[in-house]
Structures are given as structure tokens and as C-alpha cells.
Design a protein that fits this description.
homohexamer; about 350 residues; alpha/beta; UDP-N-acetylmuramoyl-L-alanine:D-glutamate ligase; 9-stranded mixed beta sheet; 4-stranded mixed beta sheet; 11 helices; 15 strands; Carb_kinase_PfkB-like (chains A, B, C, D, E, F); kinase (chains A, B, C, D, E, F); transferase (chains A, B, C, D, E, F); kinase activity (chains A, B, C, D, E, F)
Chain lengths: ~350, ~350, ~350, ~350, ~350, ~350
């Protein structure tokens, strides 16, 4: 089984029950999530060896994070302990015209304040086939930029494939800094994943004539974007997720995989959302699995999109669908008939 | 009031809250359900005399089942007590492309291991006008086949009308055994209810050109199917439910009533599902009530379909709508305007 | 900031969790609501000075009502204490073809049995710029008619603008009494809000060719209705909400503002409902705010409709959206994209 | 099996979860209860034929009350339908020095406003062996006094044994009225149940030297009280419950049965309370069962006290313990060892 | 009414439901609390004018804090907005030998990082009669020491009475720093509240022969401690709470008020705990109220102890008992009898 | 770290919330538990290598069991998959005089119907230092007796220490069979754990003059019992737990460790119970840890009793206390003071 190392933050995710707003709530459901952790869980879920690298505080929240990751078969032996706090975020579930709303309380988290010297990447990456991180991690702090660069350089040295989800977060850094940092890190990236907004905000590459708030797709322009990324940054493979946000309740969902100089568009699903947060990460989880274990690009992107289509119907950031369930959907059965 | 005896299993139904998967849950909502019990509750709900016949264990779960049935006005005096366990099943609510999932834990249940000699049908059926069972019960065990046959023969002797919902369950038996058993029992059945899949898997009669996973209807073929059933098995009336499963969240729902050699198609409803499990049983409940208390076939099938349309919006297997609410919908008001 | 006094009842609202029916429930979620109280909360939410006038019993329920109103910045200093009970109502949330259902338990409430002499309107209205009430309050009791008339006459004397939402409630009074009472009170009303049914049942003015249960709009006729109201009752401004009830799960929602002899139709939103009760009141809240703080009629009605569109996605009767969130939607972004 | 008719109110009981106060809560757990209804449920629970007589409104709350009573095997055929509302009450669970607190919202309930002519006692009491009511019912309204008197006179005529629990409620009437009314009704009572406070407030008979708030017992004085009741009012049997309220969390609990001119004191239990409300009614339920089905006075009072001791550990007003469980405790096993 | 200004932090308090540990939980109940905020709520609850001074972030958590404080009648107009985050803490409820456990996540909170220049104490303290803070606030950060000193000096200048609860928190600072800082601030304190451990750790004054973990009281030594505090630091009044921690489920609770050179010991209550956190603050709330509104020292300490005894039976940090309920307990009725 | 293999069943444990009875509930909290699994979790919790051996069905319940065990660091690689069902049991929490009640639904479970040939003990026990099982496992079925014997013989061959908790369950087998089977298996046992009832029912050895339902201890007799066990069955070490069941709410808890021919009695704790089920297993977990990692018998039994004292205050069967928390209690701090 392929051995993948994922690096980034993992946070407590606090959600008011149902559609309640934070301002109304008297309780929070708590799960744990993070862009790269979500991918690690997906990969372990498909049977791969996934190791998560992060830093969590030495208290019961830090212990609970590890308990949960272990329960999903993620290797937690490389998680550092220490620092002041676990990052937290609040998710208010939207509906119809009301968007879901995320409130970050992740500043000063253990990982964001970790010292680069704490991570011995030569040791951590021993035996690894693949390394995954996202644009969120370097956005956390300057030390996280450094740690990420250290990791990527170690990967390059060891010949480990690197994937990166651009994941631009405007509340963590601004466009200019994102561009400066990510343009540099992109030299180490073999597989780049992003959406249209990421490409524009982080890499300065945009598809013509699309308005991300309108929900309309400009399929034609995406191949150009993907091609431009490969050309400018030298990565071999680019995947672009195509979300059509009709409302907070219904989204269109598809993706493009650009590899070997060709574009492969997936089928598009119209999804009635149960939990949209983590949807993009479940695409990455499905894609990395498929890139490692399946051979045809069309099949790879179809797997990743079907897998993440199903995640949008599952509570929490972690995808928990079987390969067989993904394949049933890929093969055309989205009828939702009761399985008994 | 007509007196109807229903025979079958009743199980505990354990559901994770909301859209959680079994793998994620820390609690289960518990209700009670079973194909024939659901019909008994519907009939009592419409004011008929409904008696349920089954066997439950001599423990607090068995007592709780009876408490719940009594609360819905079902006569529980014919329920036997004993055996090892109450059958249970788990329902994971699906959404959009993710199907609802049923996990059975009903093996070795009290009713499945009951002895035919425990049921004195002459006594049980005293005063009954109608007997209802389904294809699930004989699928439970060979003794259940025998008990069902005993019941049906007693009905024949007493001139009691018999209805049977084919309800093929692939996890309980295979097609071949289902066909062998049900073909034999069909000789006693006056009113046969099923869907397209049942007709094909249980009776070997299929409508041409329909793919049950695609959600498309082949209305034309259904009359043939119904007609074939009446011809091959001698039952007077056949009802076929027509579910168009667009997704786990939205279904089309209508039905055909074939009686007196003619087909009556109901109006079709597009339903945003709250709880789909028990939907077919609520159709049977509405149909039996309508066959007994209403005269026009078109009105009968319209009542049954409107009643079961409403059940799809109600939590749990038991339908709990008033005749007046059904008639409001039959009369065209599906606007969902607040009633105050 | 403008100072608005709202007068009416406030009740406990008891809802079974999720889509459960009252007949199934073992618990109720409790919030507080009332046609005029909902408006007061909206106004305070937008930063205006809102005072609520009512009467609540001298027990912990009465105290809790005040706690909640204070938490939403509503001035409760004019709320009287005494009487026998707090009015309550039960809301069963509908879905698809099953309508939401309201059961009133508001008879004999403190406000409905209050004596006109308890309200010193000269004192209460000191410093007020605007007075708001609805057609529900006079429907509660004859003393409430008298109290309302006292208030309206005091407003006239002090030159305070008066708005009234017709809000016909067939369970509180019949058409004939409603007409008789409201026709008289309308002489004091400057801004009249209603829907098509209200206009017909309360004022006897109807748009041609519309069937409220069918969900179809007859846009053309509404201007006539609004014009007729201004002509017959002398109010300056009329707003008519236009609900297209496709089902209990999806509604079309828009409105007409008729002012200065001209009609301004808002954009229409198709809404997947989270909580429909209080939707109309949130329109009034948005409208009064906009009439006071914004200048263009088109902008005013657009604000009111966008604000109330968002309320339909929020649990409870009280709207809790920021002006900025309303403006985002007015400006065309109903995409529901996650805000982070 | 003996046939017992119980008459009184039944209300919705709304409790904040856990130890929350009404002022803090956002939900209520709902059960149903009433002094006489609790007794009817106890009697049915022990296998007797219990019929409940009351009046409930014609809405879903009224239907739900009946559903619940039926589930506990109480005959609901004599329950009238109509009136404005179902009485409700709120229970805030106390702990340690903080008392439990009951807020009544029972004024104007259907039963309190029922007309004596609605109750045909000759018909209702047909086949009855025993009639039970309490001092709460005549406290509801003057019509309830009249209805109670009608019932008692009919019992006298038919030779039906009558039991009455004095149950003084200071929020429903004052001492003087209670004395006037109850002194008159006592002439029809064969079995009188009360506590020390009831005897004093309702019948004007007091034990010397006891302070009900201090929790101290004056065992010696109780026999006198019981004897005085029999002498003054002519009833044959008197039971007095002896609660020592150490705190809202721990109570001492015992009782005295005075019959045939002799006193029988039960064993005393120190109870860690789960739900104290309904405790007295469960004593009455146990006592009536024991008076009907067991022969020795000592055994009767021991049964009643053990049964109600167990009720104090059960959520809700309704006692739900088996005769065997009561006997285990009577026989000295209060060890609480796990039963498996 | 006296006008009291309280200054300190307010945090979100996240508790697993029931007795669950953080390591086991899937949800948190959320309330808000802080040593000084708890006092402000108590004071407002008794009818005084209470203003809270703190800083909260400009997000929905900051808004929610203010909503809640307003609902309890606390003036929030002096609360600053800004900074990175709201402090949070987790409370795991203990039982029997297992202690309750608090996990702090309050580092980097808005108030701890506020700048002294943000607080204009001359303005904030306008009209104030009393100022209250605790030893927790200066423990948060060096800027908080400075802000506290600024406030105390402004009080001295304006002649405002100052109370301070020593409240030593070993996780926020060490003994040496606490002593250095608090010894200096004590010069401004008129009323000093603490327990035995505080006196020793913060002021270096200890009662002889007491082991805080053993639960035994050394009543004799407390007067010496109180006297020493008044002598060394010049404050007029000292209150010492005396907790006997028999277990996490049962505590003894009493206090000593030392004023005018004399000691007044309260009655002692043995309490079965519902929620122990905030118990000490409720004592301070009761004490300040009593010092302001009641005259006799014995009555003052009795009020404070009875009030806080009741708080130990209430969920959350905020005390919510009426003066009448406190007086009932002071007058000797701790029987917990149902109030109805 | 020592490597321990535990063998037995693991079941779903379904509990009504709070103190509700099964007959009242509408939901169940679900955890997982089993006599030997509880020990495995304890051992892993203290940092030892614990492997669990059992068989679970190939469905989501089987997967969930493994997820949970992994989250607690138990090695699940030796768990077999297959069979019909996962055993379940229901726990109704008792209080005061009402005992907790366990309803088994474990018949026909995967492990009870497993075939001895499925377990390759030579392989499973590779590297193991210790093997633990209980008297529950052979009580499940004759095949389980055989599997247990196979395991014990393999241990003997490999020189692996064997511990066995007698754990007599009267609902699984009768005394005679228990004696016959366990007397034989005892020859392989090095460390025998039991309580007084086990010793009598399973081994026929009884302490004089003790009544298990009365809660009284006969300390003197226990040494004789322990000695008799070592003499008759040749085991080196015997531990006897001494539960004094004052009520379902409060228990006394202590134990005796008999080793090297001497008795070591632990301190006794009086515990206010949160969750008593699994209490004995947490003693075994603590004991095995202490036998492996600590040297003094007195310290060993003190550790085991303190650890299990704390478990009685924790929800669920799994103990989750740190070594440090246990030592704090062993060292005499049971004060339950808040840790912050």
C-alpha cells in the first residue's frame, strides 16, 4: 500500500445543531477537521497508509484529536505535542440564500507557532511515497512557511511526489503574500489542485468571463488555466474543482483533471447538501487515491468527483464512503434507492 | 367497522440522528416497525379495527413494542410472548446521491423461530373481515412459511379476504426460493400489492424497458404486469406502486390500481423526503382502508397514493395523517401553506 | 435613531424537534414569538430603538420572555405584568406536501384579558416616531380592540406614523368581524401591509383570478389591490407580500410596495425553507427599517424582501441578519458560498 | 379483575432538561400527568381495569394525552372531548437546598370549565368496583365541585367504594374554601389518603409538634390524626404519607395505614430522588391495588410505600414498576445491585 | 440603586453533557462566564445597576456574549470590541472522588492583549458607587495588571469603594508573581474576599493546621487570617469562604465576614452539587449586594452564603435566585419541598 | 511494554438517556463494552500493548466496534470478521432502591457461534506476555468453552501468564455448568479475580456469614476464600472485590489481594455512582497493570481499587483515567476539588 504523509493543521470544529446560528445556540457539536487531515482520513479510509504530521497541545483536546484520527486509521506517531492551544473554528450551516459561515479561532495554535527545528523531515518522510499539503498551512504563519518549505525540499531530495491544494483563505493572508509564497513553493509541487478562485488569487491565473458568485461555469476556460499552471510552475498534473453554487442548499459539482497535456472533465452532479465543508478535501482524497491506485485519467477524475459528491451528503469534514459506494455512483446509480 | 388481522414481524428500528452514518453515531433514535405492523397502524389510524399477530420476547423490549402498538389503537391481544429476541434493524438516512441504508439484525427473532403450532388461526381470525401479510414474513424462515400458509388456508376456509404485499427482500432469501414459495401462496391472495421489482423477482413478471435505478417510468407496461398477475395467480385486484427515485432526497410517487380488468393510475407527486422507509406500507394501509370504505377505484388509488405521499414527510414508519388531511391533498392542495 | 413602539402579544412557541409531529414528540424546543414582537426584534436588530408593549404573567415564563427580548435589544420597560397566563402555540414543521401546522393555546392570555385602563398611551408613546401593530391583536378580544383603538388615536394626536400588518387569522375571528373592526381602525393607518388573502378577507378587496392554494401569482392584479386600499382607507403606503407556496419545503417570495401612486415589485426568491413561521413579520421589520432609513422605494422593497428571504432560512420567528448580509443578497449574491 | 374509575384532570407536564431552571431553558421534555391519572396508570400497571374520566380539547394535544394513556392500558373511552385547552404545568427539578418548583398553567382547562351535565355518571360507573378522585379536582372550579359531588352520590347509590386523596393545593384554592367543600364531600369517602399538611389545611385536624419544613416526624401524633378523620368523617380507612424532606435530593418516605381501628406503620426508606413529583400518587396507586388484591393491612401499607419508594427513582409522574420489583424491595432488598 | 462596575474577562464555557469527559464527548453545552462577570450578573439579578467592563472580539461569539449579558440586565455599553479571540474554557464535571477539571484556552484573549490606553476609567467609572475585580485579571497579562492598577487608582481618586476577590489561579501565574502584584494592588482594596488557599498563596498569610485537600475546617484560625489581612493591607472588610470538599459531589459551604474588628460566621450548608463552578463568585455577588443593601454583618454573610449555597444547585456560572428564595433558606427552610 | 492479549465478546451497549427506563425511552446512547474488552482498554490506557481477540460481524456495527477500540489504542488486528450479529445489551440506570437492570440480546452473536478452528492461538499469542479472559466467555456457548480451553492450553505451552475474572452470569448458564467448566479451566489460571458471589457460585467456596444483598462486609472470611482458591486450583494470586451495595446510588468499594500467602486489603471508598457497569473490569485493568508494572502487593491492590473507584464516576464501561489521577486518589486526595 502506498504510504502518504499529510502535513497541516487539525482543528476542533464547533457547529450549532441543525441550522441554528452561533448567535442562537446553546450547544456545539464537535468534530475535528483540517484541509490536510481530511485528506489523510480519506486516504486511510480507502486503505492506504496515511500519516498525519501536525502539532497539538498537551491537553485533553490534543488527546481527543489523536483518538479520533486513530479511530480512522490515520497514523498519529508523527504528531508533535506542545504549544498553547488547539485551533478551533465554528461552522454555521447555511441554507438556500443564506451562506454557511465559518468563524476562525485558529490564531496562536500549536502548529502555527511551532518551530521549524521541531520537524525532522528526513525522519518523518522515511518510507513515504507521497506528500500532501495545502495553501492553508503556509498561510498560518511565517514559521509554517518555513516548515512547509523544509518538507517540500526534503521530498524533492527523496524523490517523493508532492501534491498541494491551493486553498486560498482570505482571512489568513492577502493575495499578494499568498502569491509571493505559493509561487515559490509551487516549484516543488507535482500535483496541483485548486478551484478557479485559487488559481486567480494565488497564482494570478484566471479563466475569462466567470463570476464565482453567480454559479455559472465557463468550462472552456478551465483547460487554459490548468495548462497555464503546468507551464508556469512545472507541475505535471492539475485538478480543478468546478463548484456551481446555486444556493447554500444545492450545488453543482464536477472537476477537470489535466494530465499528460490533456483535459478530462468529470460528470457533473447536482447535490442537495448535507454538509458542504470538507467537500473539496474529499475530492483531493479521492483523487490522490485514484492517482495512486487507478490508471485511467477519466476514471481517476470520475472517482474523485463521485467520492466527493457523496461526502457532501455526510456530516462532518471526514469522508466515510467505501470504494464500492463510490463506484456504484460512478457507474450511474445516483438514484438513492434504499439499500437493504 | 371492518376488522382486519395483520400478521408479520415487528422490529426495533434504530436510527442515528439526522443524516449521521452508523459509523459516526453515539446514539440511536428508536421506533418500532415492520411491513405488516405499519399497515395495521395505518388501518387503526383511519378508524378500522386492526389486530396485529406476531411473537415478541418476554422482556422490556417486547413490552415496549406492545405499549407503542396500543398507543396507536392496534389490538395486541393476539401477540404471543416468548422466544429469544426482538428483531432489530438500523436505518441510516441517505441524502441526494447517497442512498439510505438498512442493516438487518433480525435473524433469530422470536417470530422467525416461532412454531406453527403456537398459532391457532381459527381462534385468531374469529370475526375478521380481512387478512393482510407480506412477502417478508415467509422470507424469515421455513416455519414462517408454514405459519403463513396455515393462516391463508384458514382465511380461505372462512371466506376472509386476503391481501399480500410482495415486498421482495434480497437479504432474506434469493429469487428462486421467493418464486417457489410465493407462487404457491399467491393462490390464496385476493389483493396483490407490489412494485415492478417485486413482480419480476418474486413472480417472474416484468414490464419491458424499465431500469429501476434510473428513475424512469414505463407507465404503459404496468397494466400488462398487473393483468398478468391476475391471470396467472387468480387474484382480483392488483396494485403497483411506481417510485421514481430521482435521488435519496426527492422521489416521484404514484401507483396503479388494476381491478375489474381496468387500470386506474393515480396522480403523481414529487416528494421531498423526510423519511422514506415505510412509504410503501403506508400505501397499502391507505389502499386497504379505501378498498373497504370507499367505492370508486380511481378514488381508492388516489387516496392510497396521497396518504402515502404524506407519510414520506413523517418521521418513522408509522403513518399518522387524518383522512381529512389526505383528502385535502387528493383535492389538489399540496401547497404546504401553514395551517393555523 | 428612530424610536418605534410595537404593540401586541408575545407567546411561547413550542416546536417538536425536526419534522416530528406533536402526536409523536417527547420534547418541545421553546422560543418566543408574536407578530409584532417579531417586528420589534427585527428593528432592534437593524439598530433602531424598539420598544415592545404587551402584558405577561408574573411568573418565570413572563420573566423569560423579557430576558429574551432584552437579549435582542428590545426595550421591555413598557411591558405590563399580571394576568393569568402567557399565550402559547405549537408549531409542527411541515415538509413537501405536508403543511406546517399551528395549534393555538393563546386564549385567556394576559394581554387578551388586559384592561384598556392599564395602558397609558400618552406616556408609552412619549418620544416615539412610529407605532406598529397588526390585525392579530384586535382579533384577540374586545378589550384588545379597544386598547388598539386607544393607541391609534393617541398616535394620531401625537402625529406618530402608524403601520399595520393586516394578518388575518381565521382561528381568532371570522371575516365579518375582522372587516367591521379593521375597516374602522384603518383610518389611523399610514402604512398598510398584507397579503392577497388579508386584503380579501379583512378589507374585502381582491385581486382577480388567483388561487392561494395553487401558488400561482397574478402580478398584474396586485397594483389594483394596493391602489384600492389607499383609496378606500386613505393610507399612503401599501405593501403586499407575494408568497408562491409550491410546497411546504419550497416557496417563491417577493413583494410589491405601492407608494406615491406607483408600484415597485421586488425581485423574487425561490427559497428552500428552514423555518417559514415569522417570515411575513421579517418582511415588515425590513420594510419599516427601510422606510425609515433608506430613500428609494425600489431599494426599500428590495431590502425588505431580501431580509425576509434570509429569515426563512433561520430557526425561530426572530430575524437575525445583518444589514450587510441583506445587502449582499440584494446585490445579487444568493449563491450561498461558504463565508470564511 | 377489579374495575376502578378515576376522575380528575390530566395535564401536559413540561420540564427543562436536567436541573435547568425555566429561566434558562431552550427546551422542555413533555410528559402527561395528573393526580388521579397517575393513580389510574398505576392501577393498570398492576393489572387492574382502570378507566380515566376527564375532558380534553379536540386538538393534537388532546389526542396525544389519549395515546399515552392507552399505551399504559388505561381505558380512555369515557374521556370527553371539547373545551378550550389542555391544562399544562412546568416542573423545575430542584436539588439539595433548592426546592423543585411547579408553575401552573391549568386555568381555563377543558375539565375545569366542563359542565356537570356532560357527565352521565350512571353510565360511566357501570360495572365499576371502586371510584377514586382527589381534592385537586374540586379545587379547579365550582363546576368541578358539582361534578365531583354528582359522581360521589352516584357511587353511594351504586355501592361503589370511594377513595379520595386530600391533596391540598394552595395555589388553587384557600384553606377556608377547601375545608368547606371537602368536609361536605368527605361523607361519601370510604378511604381517605392525605399527609399531615392536608389533614390540617383541608380537614382542620393536626398532629401536634411537627414542622413540615424541618423534615422531622412525629410518628406518635399520626394515629390520632387518622383516628380523628375516621371519627369525624366516617370513612373506614385512612392512609397518611410521612415525607421527611431532608433536602430536594434526599427524602425519608413512609406511611401509616389506619384501618379497623388500628395503625400500621410501614418501613421507612431514605430515597435519593430522581423525580419526586407524582410520588404521593404512586403511593395511592399501590395502596388501592393492595387494598383490592392483598389481605393484610401491614402488607398493604408496605406494598404501597415500597411501590412509591421506587417511583421516586423513575422519571415522570407515572409509576412503572412490576409487582415483583415492589415485592423484592418489601422483602428487604434495597441494595440496588445490578440485575442481569 | 447602587451602581457597580465590574472588570475582568468573560469566556465561553464549554461543557460535555452530563458527567462525560472531554475525551468522550461529541458535543459541548456552551454558556459564558468569568469571575467578575458572574458577580455582575448576580448584582443585576438582585436589582442593582451592574456594568461590565471587558473586551471581546468583533465576531459572533463577541456578539453572543453581549446578548447573554444583556438578557441578565448587565449594562454592556462599556465593553470594548476588538482583538483576536474570546477566551474559552472547558469544564468536565466531576463526581464523587473524581474532581471537576477545567482546561483553559484563554491565552491571547482580547482582554488579555488589550492596551491600557483603550480604557478611559474616568469616563467608565462615572456615576459608579462600587468597583469589583479579582486576582484573575492581573494574572492574565502584564497589560492587565496595568489596566487594573489604572482602574483602582481612578477609584481611589473618585472615592469609589473597591472589592477584590483574590482568586489565585496557579495555571495563570506563580505564587511569587501573584504576591508581588497583588500586595501592591491591595492598597486600593476596601473589601477583600478570598479563601484559605488564596490568603496563603497570594498574600502569604495562612491559618495554622489545615489541609485543603482533606476537607477539614479550622474555624479558629480564620479570624486571625482575616485580621492579618486588614492589618497588613488596610482593607476594612474581609470575607473568607470555607469550603469543605468531602467529594466532588458533596461540599460543606460556609463563610466568615470580618468587619469592624469582629468575625461573623455563617451557618454551614452541606450541598449536593449540581454545578460547583462559579460558586465562589455567587458568594461575592450575594455579599456585595448585602453590604450595599442590608445592614447587619451577620445578616450580610448569611445572605451571601445562602445565595451561593443555592447557586451550587444551578447549572452554569450565573446565579439566578430571587432575594426571596435566599431569605427562605436563610430563615431555615432548606427542606427542598416542592413549591407549587 | 508488556504485551497482553484479551479474549472475549464485545457488545453494543444501549442505554436510555439519564434515568429513563427502557419502557419509557425514545433513544439509546450507544457505546461498546465487554468484560475482557473493558480490561483491554484499561491496559492500553495505562500504556501497555493490548490486543483484543473476538469475532464481529461484517457490517457497519462490526466496523464501528473496531473504530472505537482503535481510538483507545487497542490492537484490533486479531479480531475475526463474520457471523450473523453483534451481541447487544441494554442498561437501564438505577437509582437509590431501584437497581440498574441489564437486558441481554447477545445470543447468536458472532463470537458465541465462532468455530474453534478459526482461532490460531499459536499465531495470536506470538509475543504475548499475559493472557486475560473471564468466566463470561465460556458461558456463551460450548464452542466458546472449547476456544477458551485452546487458548489457555496454548498459554501454558508458551509460558504466558493467565488471568481470569470468574464473573458468574446467571442468565448465561447455571451454577452446575459453571462449576463443571470453570473448575477445569482454573488449572491454567495464574491470577484469579472474583467477588464473593463468584467464588461461591463458580468455585463452590464461600465466606461465612455474609448476605450479598445486605451490603455488609465480612472482611475476616475473605482471606479464607482466597486461600482456598489458591489451594484448590493452584493459582498464585487471587483478588477479591468487595462491593457494599448500600443502594443503586452509593456503593462501598474495596478489594483484597492475596499473594505469596498473604492478604492485602485496600482502602475502602464510598462512591456516589455515575455508571457502575464495568466497575469490576476496571479493577482488573488496574490490577493487571499494577501486577506488571508495580512491585508491592499493597500498592498493587491500592492502585486497582483507586482506579476502579474513579471508573464508577465515568460514563460507559471503559475506564479513562490517567496513572497520575489514580495516584492522586491513592495518596489520599479524594476531595474532588476542581482541578484548574
Amino acid at each position: 500500500m502506498a504510504n502518504i504523509v499529510c502535513f497541516g493543521e487539525i482543528m476542533g470544529r464547533l457547529c450549532p445543531p441543525g441550522y441554528k446560528k452561533v448567535l442562537q445556540t446553546t450547544s456545539f457539536d464537535v468534530t475535528f477537521a483540517g484541509g490536510e487531515a481530511n485528506v489523510a482520513v480519506s486516504l486511510a479510509n480507502y486503505g492506504l497508509d496515511a500519516t498525519y504530521v501536525t502539532k497539538v497541545p498537551n491537553n485533553d483536546l490534543g488527546k481527543l484529536v489523536k483518538r479520533i484520527l486513530k479511530s480512522y486509521d490515520v497514523n498519529v506517531n508523527q504528531i508533535l505535542t506542545g504549544g498553547d492551544r488547539l485551533g478551533m473554528y465554528y461552522v454555521e450551516k447555511g441554507a438556500s440564500q443564506r451562506p454557511s459561515k465559518v468563524i476562525y479561532d485558529r490564531k496562536y495554535s500549536a502548529i502555527s507557532m511551532a518551530d521549524p527545528s521541531e520537524f525532522n523531515w528526513d525522519h518523518i518522510l522515511e518510507g513515504a511515497d507521497w506528500f500532501h499539503t495545502t495553501g492553508i498551512t503556509p498561510a498560518l504563519s511565517d514559521t509554517c512557511i518555513e516548515i512547509t518549505r523544509d518538507a517540500l525540499q526534503a521530498c524533492r531530495k527523496k524523490g517523493i511526489t508532492v501534491s498541494c491544494d491551493l486553498n486560498y483563505r482570505k482571512n489568513l493572508w492577502d493575495c499578494d503574500k499568498a502569491k509571493a509564497v505559493m509561487s515559490d513553493l509551487m516549484q516543488y509541487v507535482d500535483v496541483c489542485i485548486g478551484n478557479e478562485e485559487d488559481a486567480e488569487k494565488v497564482l494570478g491565473i484566471s479563466a475569462s468571463e466567470t463570476d464565482v458568485t453567480a454559479g455559472a461555469l465557463n468550462k472552456a476556460g478551465y483547460t487554459e488555466v490548468a495548462q497555464a499552471i503546468t507551464e508556469q510552475y512545472g507541475c505535471k498534473t492539475v485538478a480543478i474543482t468546478l463548484r456551481e453554487s446555486y444556493s447554500a442548499s444545492v450545488n453543482g459539482w464536477s472537476a477537470l483533471l489535466y494530465t499528460g497535456g490533456k483535459s478530462y472533465f468529470s460528470k457533473k452532479y447536482d447535490i442537495q447538501l448535507v454538509d458542504r465543508v470538507g467537500g473539496g478535501d474529499s475530492f483531493v482524497g479521492g483523487l490522490l487515491y485514484a492517482l495512486l491506485e487507478r490508471t485511467e485519467p477519466q476514471d481517476q477524475v470520475d472517482f474523485a468527483v463521485a467520492a466527493s459528491c457523496l461526502k457532501h451528503t455526510i456530516e462532518g469534514d471526514f469522508n466515510q464512503v467505501t470504494i464500492q459506494e463510490v463506484e456504484t455512483l460512478m457507474n450511474g446509480d445516483g438514484s438513492g434507492r434504499v439499500q437493504r
